[in-house]
Design a protein that fits this description.
2 copies of one chain form a homodimer. The first copy, chain A, is of the alpha/beta class. Chain A has 2 domains: about 1-150 and about 200-300, Ribonuclease Z/Hydroxyacylglutathione hydrolase-like (Metallo-beta-lactamase, Chain A), CATH 3.60.15.10; about 160-195, no CATH class. Chain A contains 10 helices and 18 strands. Chain A has helices spanning about 40-45, 70-80, 95-100, 160-165, 170-175, 190-195, 215-220, 235-240, 245-255, 275-280, and strands at about 1-5, 20-25, 30-35, 55, 85-90, 110-115, 125, 130-135, 145-150, 155, 180, 190, 195-200, 200-205, 225-230, 260-265, 290, 295-300. The first copy, chain A, has a 7-stranded mixed β-sheet. A 7-stranded mixed β-sheet of chain A has the order 7-8-9-14-15-16-17, covered by helices on one side. A two-stranded antiparallel ribbon of chain A has the order 10-13. In chain A, strand 2 and strand 3 form a beta hairpin. Chain A starts with a strand and ends in an 8-residue tail after the last strand. At the A-B interface, helix 1, helix 2 and helix 3 of A face helix 1, helix 2 and helix 3 of B.
Chain lengths: ~300, ~300
């Protein structure tokens, strides 16, 4: 997977930072986590083609996570999109879109498959080659964190193929698909002997939230945890009152969940210089970085084509 | 007045052009005509201070004229705005804002004075030093054109003051306010003898619309007509079917209304090069320009302070 931060500011944009949005590219899909104002412009700057978009997840309905969605849907429609788009978000998202549609603010011509998350623990969604789990977070309004996992897959072991003199062509294709093969020479090739599992890649996204157990559950052993860090540690009381996290809260979650890497985002516009926030986080969880807009992060090593 | 084009693209933004928005600075006010996605970012680039904003006029509810409004309201609220904001727009604007408010997409703390235009000819609105007339245009949904006029005012005639030996100070102040003055020497100075009217400045904004009589009524003798020109002349049938104008339609309106100057906007993204559109317009109405984003246009010569 490749993660591209598109917006990292909390509440309102600044001259340097847009409001909340992340793009994720997998082997086969392009998805968005949140969609603040101007997300479609950021996608263009990141050379992400909107028509490849298959899934948009909205954490909650506060405008700094949502204002860019109607304009994006409008643009997709004007680009003659035909294929469906899956939208996953909190209760109220359907009312929001229905109102915009009934007033003709938007008039998308393509199917929108909308799923509103429940506040109880939910069964994972399957979207193409991805599995998506949503759990409620602790914010001022209904808000969900997401864990996105690629379906487990496997690759052929080149050395083993060579040792067994498996010819190129249909035999290898069938093995790749998990099918055993009867060879002309009488041998039976067992697919599992030739397949090596590729560890599935997981990214967890938690914003906006005060510290809560569901962030740890969503993040457990993830390859990347994207966690809000609206405030530095000295603003803990304000952060928690407003349903937000400090840098320390984010880093402690990363440590407790034993994630491989932590990416901080959703910075209050009060901070021009984020180096203090980074230092505070690394004191607790060293594998921490600040999300930098339009700077992609390779989470796993598969190829991307979006 | 100073007019600053902030967005000149129709339907969707391009790499060069944002969706519909114009700012107008008067001696005392800052107002917006339409508010496409990213208008607040364009205001920042144009060094327009959002807290000076007193009035936003929305022509119609299609997203390319509206998507930036909720984000702008959110930013104003986060900047602790207290003073009221006047919003003028089509029927449905209240439902739109009420839905966003009830879902907590926006939660403005300042008063919003909302006026929905009627489809019959309406009495002009008065907002500070401005008079605003709205008339229905001919589009696919309810859509209004606007004429904004500064209240008539006057300046003292310096030569006449000198000829009559009127001393500096309270006498001149009272004359400036239209009050006659009894002089110590027995003379009575009649204010109207010393005041020279400053022609009031008018800007008319017509988008989106097929050609219709109301555009001419709104534009009659205006200092500036901002008129949509979504298509070149060869796309007339498509333009009118979709409730839009060609360049020729805009130029003919300007000529019929005897405006001083025509500014074309709302260009279809199909046109990379707009020189053909400009040439087609100037063939009918020579005093035509293309709206260039962030390039201010001085309509009258008064001072601006926004």
């Amino acid at each position: 997977m490749r993660v591209i931060p598109l917006g990292t500011s909390a509440g309102k944009a600044t001259a340097e930072r847009m409001t909340a949005a992340f793009a994720i590219q997998t082997a086969k899909q392009l998805l968005l986590l949140d969609c603040g104002e101007g997300t479609q412009h950021q996608m263009r700057r990141a050379a992400l083609r909107p028509h490849r978009l298959s899934l948009v997840c909205i954490s909650h309905l506060h405008g700094d996570h949502l204002h860019g969605l109607p304009a994006l849907l409008g643009t997709l429609s004007l680009c003659n999109r035909q294929q469906p788009l899956t939208l996953i978000g909190p209760p109220g998202l359907a009312t929001y879109l229905d109102t915009l549609r009934s007033l003709q603010v938007i008039y998308p011509d393509f199917p929108i498959h909308l799923h509103e998350c429940g506040t109880q623990r939910t069964t994972p969604f399957t979207v193409g080659d991805l599995q998506l789990t949503a759990l409620p977070l602790q914010h001022r309004i209904a808000c969900f964190g997401f864990r996105i996992t690629e379906h487990p897959c496997a690759r052929l072991d080149a050395q083993r193929l060579q040792d067994s003199a498996v010819p190129h062509g249909p035999c290898r294709s069938r093995l790749r698909q998990g099918q055993d093969v009867n060879m002309p020479d009488g041998r039976i090739l067992i697919a599992n002997d030739f397949l090596r599992p590729i560890p599935s890649c997981s990214v967890t996204y938690c914003t906006d939230t005060a510290p809560c157990e569901n962030t740890r559950i969503l993040a457990q052993d993830a390859d990347l945890l994207i966690h809000e860090a609206t405030y530095a540690n000295d603003a803990q009381e304000q952060a928690h009152q407003r349903g937000h996290s400090t840098v320390n809260d984010a880093a402690r979650c990363a440590r407790a969940a034993q994630v491989k890497r932590l990416l901080l985002t959703h910075f209050s516009p009060r901070y021009d210089d984020l180096s203090l926030l980074l230092a505070q986080a690394r004191a607790v969880f060293p594998h921490t970085d600040l999300a930098e807009e339009l700077q992609p992060i390779e989470v796993c090593s598969k190829q991307h084509s979006n």
